[in-house]
Structure formats: structure tokens, C-alpha cells
Automatic annotation (TrEMBL):
GO terms for molecular function: mRNA binding; U1 snRNA binding. Residues 60-79, 207-245, 260-277, 285-301, 337-385 have a biased composition (Basic and acidic residues). One of its GO terms (cellular component) is U1 snRNP. It comes from the Eukaryota. Its main location: nucleus. This is U1 small nuclear ribonucleoprotein 70 kDa. Component of the spliceosomal U1 snRNP, which is essential for recognition of the pre-mRNA 5' splice-site and the subsequent assembly of the spliceosome. SNRNP70 binds to the loop I region of U1-snRNA. PROSITE patterns: RRM. The keyword RNA-binding applies. Residues 246-259 have a biased composition (Basic residues). GO terms for biological process: mRNA splicing, via spliceosome; regulation of RNA splicing. It is found in: Nucleus speckle; Nucleus, Nucleoplasm. Component of the U1 snRNP. The U1 snRNP is composed of the U1 snRNA and the 7 core Sm proteins SNRPB, SNRPD1, SNRPD2, SNRPD3, SNRPE, SNRPF and SNRPG that assemble in a heptameric protein ring on the Sm site of the small nuclear RNA to form the core snRNP, and at least three U1 snRNP-specific proteins SNRNP70/U1-70K, SNRPA/U1-A and SNRPC/U1-C. Interacts with SCNM1. Found in a pre-mRNA splicing complex with SFRS4, SFRS5, SNRNP70, SNRPA1, SRRM1 and SRRM2. Found in a pre-mRNA exonic splicing enhancer (ESE) complex with SNRNP70, SNRPA1, SRRM1 and TRA2B/SFRS10.
Length: 431
């Protein structure tokens, strides 16, 4: 089909010219010939350095050694600076230390936001103040956190020194001490290796938390108060936890008691339903018993015909007498175990004998009717023959008395008699 395409389309399928062959610029690695083959390091041994002329090896410094060296150098520099400043430090010739040293109070650990007016309001309660000097940094101009307060009277300074230590100002407890630079010989400030008082000697291993005074009972009492407050808070937290645990346990007990009460109510309802069901069953059985008694009496009355004076035996002779009406209380109550057992036995016996007794009653009534018919026919034939009462003849009816009873029956009050016609044991009628 392609041969029928036009030339312009056939030109699209035409092959290109073959690529011209060009010689390679250099030989391939496997075509190259190495003029000098590979060799070991033996020719270069003579270039190595002689071990006897080599310098001894140097040991590099580790990171821990470098940090320890820098720390020692810093301590040495600081000691040199402190020694230089101690030579230049003279508190008696300090231009900033003005006024009477025995009326000046030193206040440290001051909040950086506390102003001079705030300090004046807090410390004027102990007496009139002559001058307040707050110390600021020379480089940044920010407060350093301590100040000097000069009172007009020395007794006011002693009062503030005694009562203002540990006072909270702007959320921080200040430390109050006397000015020791001009009053205590050999005392040095902390920046020069000293401390605030006799117990402020330097680091945390030698310093104590209260100011350098002999009477530390107030601080001990404050610490005891703080410990008591901490213990009280802990006891309150423990009480809250215990109260919460008791509340949770009481909730659990109430939940369990509610569930138990619900189960008990459900069981009591089930027991009441069972009792109602048993009561209804007993009442239905008693009604069924009464109905059967009525039906039996109706059948006996209907089967007697003209012989209304003939008393038929009742079912009461076969079944034991009831103790009373269904709702009457027995010796153990209406639902006593003996009454229940008697009812169950009585119902069982009656249910087993009901069908058999009805069949026996029907057979007994049929036999009586047949016997009465035969006796009536024989009496009519004797009267027609003129035999009178038929007392001298043996016609097989001498057992029949004048009252219509069979002479084969035993007198009243016996346990029963045997009927000669069908061999059934007939029971005597009750009194």
C-alpha cells in the first residue's frame, strides 16, 4: 500500500544517509602499550627521611585539658585584678561614701524595678531619712540591686537593721545590714572576695542565708514558720486527696448499692409475680374443683330418675377432705409448706383419678338403670299372676327390699358393698 502514496509522503519514509566513519583520536586502554610497567615502592625508599633526623612526636591537647587550662587562666587573671583593685580600694576616701557610717543602712537584693521613692516610703516608718544612694552600673546605667540609706538618728538605723531584714518589697525580700566598709576593719566587698557581713565570706559553701548577725532566732523562727506553712499546705493537699478518695469510694458504694437495690427490687417483683401466679393457679384449681363437684352432683341428680330417695356416693369419699376454702388460713398460713404440700398432693390425686372416676360413674349409673328396669318387670309379672308379694317364691328378687334398696348392700355406715352385677366395689353414701 505504501507504493501508492504520493512522493511527498514517501519522502518521509526514506532512510537517511549512513554515518561516515571517522578514525578515533586516541587508542583504547586495552590497545595502549605501557612503556614503563607498574612497580612497588622500593625505588622510593631512598626519598624517605632518616628516623634519626626526624623531630620527636608532639602530643595534641584534648578538649577537657583545654577547658581546664582556660579556667585556670581566668582564675589567675581574676586574682590579679582583685589584687590590683584591693590596692586601689579605700572606702574612707570614696567620694560616693558620704555621711556618717554609723547612721547608714545597707539594703541588698532589691528588685530592679524598685525606685528610690519606693524605698523611702518603705524605710521611713523606722525614722526620718537623710539621704538614699542607689548604686547603678557604670556601663549600662541600670540598677545593681542594692542601695545605702542614711538616717538622721542612729537609733532609727538600729531599728531598721533589727526589724526590716527580710521585708518584701515589690515581690522580693530584701537583705538589710549595716555599712561595714567604714566600720569593720579588714572587711572587703563581695566583688573583691568578701561578703556582706561576718558570715558573708565568698561562695555558697561558707555563706549562710541570713545576714551576718549573732542573733539568728528571728530567721530560725521564720524558717520554722515557712516549714510549718509548707507542712500545712502538704497536709491540706493530703486531706483534699483523701476527701476526693472518700468521695469517689462513696460514689462507688452508692452506685453499687443502687445496683443492688435495683437487683433486689427486680427479684422482689419476680417473687411477687411468682406468688401471684401460684395464687391464681391455686384459685383456678379450686374453681375447677368446685366446677367438677357441681358437674358430678348434676350428673348424679340427673341419673337418679324417679329414685330421688336413693343417695349416691359422692366424690368426697375418694379424695381427702379439704382443709377449708382456698383463701382460708391453715396451720402455717396461706402459703405454709404443709398447706402447699397437701394442695399439691390433693391436686395430683384428683387429676389422676378424675377421668377414671367419671368413667366409673357412667358405668355405675348404667348398671343401676338396667337393674331397676329388670326389677320393675319382675314385680309386674308377679302381680299379674296373683302371687301377692311373691314372698314364697325364689325368683331371684328376694334381695330387693320395700324401700327399693338392694338387700345385698350393706347397711349404712359401712365402708362399701360389692355389686353382684358388675363386681364393682360400691361406696356407701356419706352421712
Amino acid at each position: 500500500m505504501t507504493q501508492f502514496l504520493p512522493p511527498n509522503l514517501l519522502a518521509l519514509f526514506a532512510p537517511r544517509d549512513p554515518i561516515p566513519y571517522l578514525p578515533p583520536l586516541e587508542k583504547l586502554p586495552h590497545e595502549k602499550h605501557h612503556n614503563q610497567p607498574y612497580c612497588g615502592i622500593a625505588p622510593y625508599i631512598r626519598e624517605f627521611e632518616d628516623p634519626r633526623d626526624a623531630p620527636p612526636p608532639t602530643r595534641a591537647e584534648t578538649r577537657e585539658e583545654r577547658m581546664e587550662r582556660k579556667r585556670r587562666e581566668k582564675i589567675e587573671r581574676r586574682q590579679q585584678e582583685v589584687e590590683t583593685e584591693l590596692k586601689m580600694w579605700d572606702p574612707h576616701n570614696d567620694p560616693n561614701a558620704q555621711g556618717d557610717a554609723f547612721k547608714t543602712l545597707f539594703v541588698a537584693r532589691v528588685n530592679y524595678d524598685t525606685t528610690e521613692s519606693k524605698l523611702r516610703r518603705e524605710f521611713e516608718v523606722y525614722g526620718p531619712i537623710k539621704r538614699i544612694h542607689m548604686v547603678y552600673s557604670k556601663r549600662s546605667g541600670k540598677p545593681r540591686g542594692y542601695a545605702f540609706i542614711e538616717y538622721e538618728h542612729e537609733r532609727d538605723m538600729h531599728s531598721a537593721y533589727k526589724h526590716a531584714d527580710g521585708k518584701k518589697i515589690d515581690g522580693r525580700r530584701v537583705l538589710v545590714d549595716v555599712e561595714r566598709g567604714r566600720t569593720v576593719k579588714g572587711w572587703r566587698p563581695r566583688r573583691l572576695g568578701g561578703g556582706l557581713g561576718g558570715t558573708r565570706r565568698g561562695g555558697a559553701d561558707v555563706n549562710i542565708r541570713h545576714s551576718g548577725r549573732d542573733d539568728t532566732s528571728r530567721y530560725d523562727e521564720r524558717d520554722r514558720d515557712r516549714d510549718r506553712e509548707r507542712e500545712r499546705r502538704e497536709r491540706s493537699r493530703e486531706r483534699d486527696k483523701e476527701r476526693e478518695r472518700r468521695r469517689s469510694r462513696s460514689r462507688d458504694r452508692r452506685r453499687r448499692s443502687r445496683s443492688r437495690d435495683k437487683d433486689e427490687r427486680r427479684r422482689s417483683r419476680e417473687r411477687s409475680k411468682d406468688k401471684d401466679r401460684d395464687r391464681k393457679r391455686r384459685s383456678s384449681r379450686s374453681r375447677e374443683r368446685a366446677r367438677r363437684e357441681r358437674e358430678r352432683k348434676e350428673e348424679l341428680r340427673g341419673g337418679g330418675g324417679g329414685g330421688g330417695d336413693m343417695v349416691e356416693p359422692s366424690e368426697a369419699g375418694d379424695a381427702p377432705p379439704d382443709d377449708g376454702p382456698p383463701g382460708e388460713l391453715g396451720p402455717d398460713g396461706p402459703d405454709g409448706p404443709e398447706e402447699k404440700g397437701r394442695d399439691r398432693d390433693r391436686e395430683r390425686r384428683r387429676s389422676h383419678r378424675s377421668e377414671r372416676e367419671r368413667r366409673r360413674d357412667r358405668d355405675r349409673d348404667r348398671d343401676r338403670e338396667h337393674k331397676r328396669g329388670e326389677r320393675g318387670g319382675e314385680r309386674g309379672r308377679d302381680e299379674a299372676r296373683g302371687g301377692g308379694g311373691g314372698g314364697g317364691q325364689d325368683n331371684g328378687l328376694e334381695g330387693l327390699g320395700n324401700d327399693g334398696r338392694d338387700m345385698y348392700m350393706e347397711p349404712e355406715g359401712g365402708d362399701g358393698y360389692l355389686a353382684p352385677e358388675n363386681g364393682y366395689l360400691m361406696e356407701a353414701a356419706p352421712e
